[in-house]
Amino acid sequence: MLAPRSIRLIAPSGYCHNQDAAQRAVSRLQADGHEVENLSAITRRFQRFAGEDAERLNDVNQLARLTTLPDIVLAVRGGYGATRLLDKIDYVGLQRQLLNQPVALCGHSDFTAIQLALLAQTGLITFSGPMLAGNFGAETLSEFTLSHFWQALTSPTVNIGWRSHSPDRGRWQGTLWGGNLAMICSLMGTPWMPQIEDGILVIEDVNEHPFRIERMLIQLQQSGILARQRAIITGSFTSTSLSAYDNGFDFATVWQRLRDEFHIPVISDLAFGHDADTVTLPLGSRATLQLEQGEAQLAFTGHPTMR
Where would I find the LD-carboxypeptidase C-terminal domain in this sequence (predicted)? Predict the structure, then answer.
């Protein structure tokens, strides 16, 4: 039985259009004994956003001023809006308040922008994982997602294994980072992009065709970022379909071109991203990746864990 935790909601991105899912998530968490704070973030709305910029920014910056820290800071949903806030975030205050504290900031999709900005500016390790509405509020709660979430937040060392179709083999060590690929690319050339040497870059996306994914990866390569990575892990790339025009140009083709042209291992098929089943990964942690005969293993440590 999990110990009850305090969970503070933030909504730095889009309006939560699925209010029923969000309320279902809150009810589930409360039924399990958890305290859920800042519920007004769920219903706030301005245009397509979860409130005006100042309100959404306050969700983030208020974390630097709390007298009692929550165990978990959980994004309500993604969408769009986080990048509008990046130059106004109180990085100094958040670093002073949160660095080396057992607080888990968790979310994915548009939230990737804030996570990587925090990593670049403060060194804070945050968790790319489930969000309130889409995951905890799903009609059928994924036990896979739930178990990986709590494991990542409570275990100092985590090992994840999966079956990969990648032809690569080997062992790589480095800094685990990444998240939503479109958001990673949106940070290029800005102060919010982490400068990761010897990285293990994990990527996922939704509603993006293979040619768009390849174009973003070429951008990363031509900017010199891919050359500094030890390996790439690909998660889920969902909600897109091929046409006759593609003539076989699929995601597997994109991954193989990365191997052939850029000489970087690409370890595919991790359950990570916008699918119902997703692992939780600490961005900025120390990681070891192995692949032998299609069996992949990812171990990470050095991330904040709850007591």
Answer: 173-289
